[in-house]
Amino acid sequence: MTTIGTLILSGLGIYFLGILGVLIFPKKRTSLVLISGGGGSLILMAAGAVSLFSPDIFRTVLWTIPGLGPVTVTVDHLSAFFLIAVSLAAFPASLYAAPRIHGVRSALYLGLLISLAPVVITADVFSFLAAWEIMSIFLYLLINSGKEERPGYLMLALGEAGTLAVLAALLLLAGNTGGLSFHALKVSSMHITPGLQWTVFILSFFGFGVKAGLIPVNFWLPKAYAAAPPSVIPLIAGATLNLGLYGIIRINTDLLPVHSTGMGIVVLVTGAVTALIGILYATIEDDLKTLLAHSSIENAGIMTTALGAGMIFLATGYKGAAAIAFIASFYHLLNHSVYKTLLFIGAGTVEESTGLRSLDRMGGLLKTLQWTGFFMLIGVLSISAIPPFNGFVSEWLTLQSLLRSVELASLGIKIVFVAAGAVLALTAGLTVTCFVRAFSMGFLGMPRTEKPAGIRKAGKAALVSMAFLALISLSLGVLPTYVIPAIDKAVSPLTGINGSTALIPPFFNNAQEGNELPQHFVSDFQTIGAQIGKGTLPGRGLVVMHRGGKKNPVVFAMSTSYLFIMLFILLALTFLIVKFATRHRKTVKRPRWDGGIRNLLPEMTYTATGFAQPVRVIFNTILRPKVVDRREVIIKHFREAIHLKRKEVHLIDKLVLYPLSSASMWTAEKLARMHSGRVNSYAGYALFILILFLVIASFI
Amino acid sequence: MSNWVLKGLQSGVVTTRYPRKEEKAQGISPGFPDIDSQGGDINGREEDVCPTAALYGDSNSLKLDKGRCIHCFRCVRNTGHPVSWTSGFEWASFTEKGTPFPKIFQKSLYIRVVDSGDCGACLNEVKLLNNPLYNMHRLGLFITPTPRQADILLIVGPVTDHMKTALRKTYDAMPEPKRVMAVGSCALTGGIFSSGFTSGSGVSSLIPVDIEIPGCPPPPLAVLHGLLTLAGRTK
Amino acid sequence: MKLQETVNQMQSRWNTELKIDLDLSAGTAVVHCERNTVPPLCGWLFNTMEYHFTGLVPEEGTEEWKLIYFFTGEADLGSIQVQTSAPLNEETFQSVSPIVHAVDWHEREAEDLFGLVFEGHPRLGDFVLHDDAWQEGLAPMRSGFDSDLAHSQRKPKSNWKPRKVLDAPGAFVMPIGPVFSGEAESSHFLLETIGEEIVRALPRLFFKYRGVEKLAEGKSIHDALLLSERFAGTTAFSHALTFCTAAEKLSGGQIPERAELLRIFFAEMERFRHHIGIIEGICSSTGLVVAASQAGILEEKMLRLTGKLTGHRYFFGLAVPGGLSRDTDDEAIKEALKEIKGILHDLNTLEKLLKKTSSFLDRLEDVGIITPQQAQDFELAGPMARGSHFCNDVRKLLPYGMYPSLQFEVPCEREGDGYARLRIFFEEARQAAAFMNQAAAMIKPGPVYTPYSGGEGTALAGVETPGGASWQWLRVDKNNRITRYRIMPPSFANWHGFHLAVEKFAFQDFPIIKATLGLSVAENDR
Predict the structure, then answer these.
(1) For the residues of C353-402, what is the DSSP string, one character each?
(2) Would you say residue C161 lies in a domain?
(3) CA A46 to CA A113: how far, in whole Å?
(4) Model pLDDT for residues A278-291, shown as the tens digit of each residue
């Protein structure tokens, strides 16, 4: 066995031992979950890293099941990337979960962990679906183990429908070949008919879309995330969403050849619409966890948009552009895992300390939860795509890749790209609004309830895990030129070219060899400092560049690395100058200016609802709230109360969930009539089924 | 929209040349009793006596407390021995503790206006400083809504009981160096409202005043003169 | 005469309960009744007979409390005073507010300042005296009130909270003031909202309460005149005129015709300047700087003209009981008329330009709407009411001075929005100029002052000030000292209806609506 195999096996083994340990010694569960969850995910991360950077692909056949074929494990670069992405979230999530998780839930938690890795490394239809199902079931059990209502049922039902669609898609593919291994599928799908490919694409895209949180099949997600126990939600939010995207990528870009731009457009448009709808509902949401859940949908939308762009570029032969789009998508996925885990841990800490989830009732938490607030701020800056944090890099790349559409020939597709770009820009703007609101209403201002008086400090585990994630967020943000080549390892098998060389000009290399850039152009950049760090730092450079054609060689270039350094220097300088200039001054603190009012009450400060009201007004046509305005009067003109209730039913709930559920209720009612209670009618049903089967059998 | 540009240009320059040149237009100031000229008798019928005792002394050596004068013109129409009347508007005077701003602050100053119960006349005269005819922006003087940016606290009104907290808070919210300017006889002494149970006897009972501008109301140029004095920009 | 009919109907309805002193020649009826008859009687007068409610005067006599509700009818309906009384140790009256909403603030003020109890009034407390500054039960207007004791035993309610009406998830209260904006009058607004739209507005006024009514007690007519002139400086002449009219009613003396005409001239001059100031405020609230500057130039020109003509830019010291303190020579008036003609021309040009500026009209049209019914229920006054087709004017209703001999129509608009009020301000400014011309044409040489003799008794006078009908009540004892002075300014009625205009509109419309209403805080706070 190779290193990779050993690492994976030991990682999974540690998880398994953890489960056994938790079941046998329930009192030691904190340290057991900590050691097995944290250790296992670290080892799996290492396995992913080793296999991502090794030129070979680790392949092994575990055993052969009669009738179904061999159970294959393949750790290619794509698997390796997702192994890293999942484990990166799983490690801090386990640190956070360890002291908080109780009873059988700790076993379920480790069970979910153990089921995550197999999903990305199994390489045949049977074992993939088995791993997928096990993961789904653990997810369902964990979500339903919360005390509140049980939204896991909705997730399970929808998830099973998704799995069925995926099963159908994979069986249709396999029907073409006879073999069940992914390799066989890939070989045979070279000659697949367009009709079959479309069917497989639609089934798998929306089947996996359930987990990935894409519209119109994501209505379970906000409900489930909001109700899931706080201790496990960081793992669920940070890791499982990625697996849905893994499925889409594995089938539609790896197994199936990318020929048609149509599929790309479906992916692109779905992604853009998902992003906008997601952030729109996040912006108006009052419950912090539900807000984060809606924001996960938005992020899934951004990843999917970039993915769609990549598929279109690939189908039209622009491999360079495709590489950038895929890199953007993967980069965003990695970033989202990190900051969403961070934000959910932060939200969990707030809930734990104050018992509050409603933003309307929070306020002023920064005074008591300084560190949680600080890390949340980093998470909020990252998700809002503020440089130098990680969200900026991936969103920048996504928008840049959409701009590449100028190279495309078809005007129609160009228009789709422009529209998607506009939607993403709007989404980015709303994201900032949403998270400025989430942070400022939660942590700044005055406490709006008595609660924060009896506040509890954040636990050590939570702070350590948040600190880890904040550090990763910053690193992914300031070191894009090192992250992009690593991601490119996973992307290049899909595109067939090395995309990172196009994005990262070799300013650190000596100009001549392998440098496709003209000499004078490079020297122009060198004069403005693109070479700072040459000789001391490894890699090609610290600048990420969006390159255009001959006439206009640079569309846009950026370097969060230099930006970070400059930012640091400027802030430090400012600090020092101010410190120096005011060294003889004493600081005088004046009371806050409140317009001279005698007593500024907490209810006189903006609420989260008030903050989001402009967004509600602007998007009124989409939100279509039901407003109940009931006014009580003592006598005419003397008002007792104005009761104003506003209810926004989620668009997808209204368009998909409610019709679906009423249709199934209707069907169930109709079918219930079959239960007449008369013996001869039951006999009739049996006879009917028998005949049906006979007819089917006669055709096969 | 272009109509407005045209309209604005048509009006030409209407702004006063003050302080570079004297302003000689009529009706820019209510003036004060002239105690230096001949005549003047402060006794008389009930309706002719100075109601706020701004005029005191006897007919040989008449004295005037400008801070108390409310321009009721009783002394002028005093049927026995009317005093005569002066115009002018450069009335601002520093209090004992009052000093102009240090040199580096003199070029541009921000003013927070607080209405502590005035009748509207003083406030209107202060508002008129932004009027094209006076246009205090040309002198680097601006009214600001927040005390945080303000250098000068300009107070009109006798400081009513209900405004005390607000005034105090505004003063406290201002950064150093700051100056307090009391405008109008109400703000200086309480004027005719001084003896009420909710109306105060002027600003100085609550916060230290640096410069006083008498008048009921002091015309815009008097306020402007006061602001320039506070900025150390008058001779 | 219809007043006779009203009185007859009153007698047949309430029969023995009423004691009516009818003075047909003066067109007044004084109705004395028991405390519990007041609400139905007032309700009947206001709702059925459509009399206007002009004010409530609470008085503390030596033996009894006395409440006087004033009603004024249109045409020859005359004026009616509904009087009721109670022994000093009984402080309870029946509230009229549930039936006549316009009485609301009058009763709240009486409760706050006199310590009277109005049974059936749903909202008492925290009005003139703020509950977070003073304890309840202070009653400073009572004769035995000890100011020093009140200050030394002051117990503000530190945990006072505004009474909230809005119940909605995420609702909050947006406080504005008391110190806000650049040079706004001190007032405090609590806007209940869930963001963007004002659902309920609660103006908290009387930050500038100076207690003028209390200060006037014990003063001579001449000293109290100074108070009436200076409690609202921008409309000083009209208020001084109201006071002088009341004082002259007491003495019964006539004033010279020249003084009457000059009074009209100056009162309309003040209205002209006041309205230009309001127009300036509306323009600057919408950010239309050039228009605001243009109006500002005209306002300052008017102030200078006033200063030139009368010695004081705000007419201080001009009106006295018995006429005017100074004469103005006819040449100067002719000059002034010439100048006013020029200013009016500029004002008309400004109006034309404003009506062509769609960005400006967009901010005013359909914004800040008060319906005619609301205006009637709240008995609004002045331009604010006339913008909502509630068009009463004291100069027509109870003409005073030389107004009956002058020609004019009361301007009236139907929409009740900000733009309707702006048109009213322009129209009234034009009308004021026309008044000045008419009055100047009639002026003949003569004295402007007859010595004021004084007199004992009570008098009510109403004058149409720039802001609307202002009523003042005087009671003077035999030593010529004022024992009760009551000011019922138009702003007091109009601030009561302020929330009607701003509710259901967005935050950003608030300053604009406030500007189009043209209300004075100083006048209300007294």
Answers:
(1) HHHH-HHHHHHHTTSS---HHHHHHTT--HHHHHTTT----HHHHS--TT
(2) no
(3) 16
(4) 999 999 888 898 99
Mean pLDDT of chain B: 84
CATH of the domain at C411: 1.10.645.10
B58 shares its domain with B158:
no
- Paired sense of beta strands A69-75 and A58-65, if any: antiparallel
Give the residue, B29 or A571, on which the prediction is more confident.
A571
Which residue range(s) make up the domain with B59?
Answer: 32-86
Domain end, chosen from B86, B110, B125, is at: B86
- Contacts of residue A607 in chain C, CB cutoff 8 Å? 170-172, 194-195
CATH of residue C109's domain is 3.30.460.80
B127 with B175, same domain? yes
Tell which residue, C198, C200, C206, has the closest CA to residue C231: C206
Question: Quick one: pLDDT band at residue A573, thresholds 50, 70, 90?
Answer: very high
Interchain pair C195, A634: CB under 8 A: no
- Which tokens belong to B224? 């402007």
B116 occurs within a structural domain: yes
Report d(CA C147, CA A589) in Å as an integer.
36
A599 part of contact set with chain C, CB < 8 Å: yes
Are A390 and A473 within 8 A, CB to CB? Answer: yes
Give whole-number Cα distances, C73 to A629, C70, C381, C487, in Å: 38, 10, 14, 20
CB C113 within 8 A of CB C105: no
Structure tokens at B100: 């102009």
Q: Does C298 touch chain B (CB under 8 A)?
A: no
What ipTM did this prediction achieve?
0.90
> Is residue A593 scored above 90 in pLDDT?
no
Average pLDDT, chain C: 87
**Tens of pLDDT, residues C13-64:** 887 778 888 887 778 888 888 888 888 888 888 888 888 898 899 988 888 8
How many contacts does A have with C, using Cβ atoms within 8 A? 108
Question: Would the pLDDT of C373 be above 80?
Answer: yes
How far apart, in Å, are the Cα atoms of A294 and each of A489, C100, C362? 31, 52, 37
Q: Same structural domain for residues B39 and B119?
A: no
Among residues 572-611 of chain A, which lie with CB inside 8 Å of chain B? 588, 590-598
Residue C490 tokens read as 């138009």
**Count of domains observed in chain C:** 2
C325–B contact, CB cutoff 8 A: yes
pLDDT tier for residue A148 given thresholds of 50, 70 and 90: low
Report d(CA C457, CA C484) in Å as an integer.
10
User: Is B21 inside any structural domain?
Assistant: no
C179·A596 Cβ contact <8 A: yes
Q: Which residues are CB-contacts of C362 (< 8 A; sequence separation ≥ 6)?
A: none
Are B216 and C316 a contacting pair at CB < 8 A? yes
Q: Do residue B184 and residue B114 come from a single domain? A: yes
Per residue in C290-303, pLDDT (tens digit) is 889 889 999 999 99
Chain Cα centroid distance, residue A553: 33
Distance between CA atoms of C398 and B99, rounded to whole angstroms? 56
Burial class of residue B24 (count of CB atoms within 10 Å of its CB; 0-12, 13-18, 19+): exposed
Within a domain: residue C195? no
Q: How far is A603 from chain C (nearest CA, A)?
A: 5
Torsion from C-alpha of C83, C86, C91, C96, nearest 10 degrees: -30
The string of pLDDT tens digits covering residues C88-147 is 888 888 888 888 888 989 999 988 888 888 888 888 888 888 888 888 778 888 888 887
Pairing of strands C52-60, C64-72: antiparallel
By CA distance, what is A591's nearest residue in B?
Answer: B173
Mean of the pLDDT values across residues A122-147?
84
Q: Flag whether B120 is in a domain.
A: yes
Based on the fold, state whether residues B98 and B81 are members of the same structural domain: no
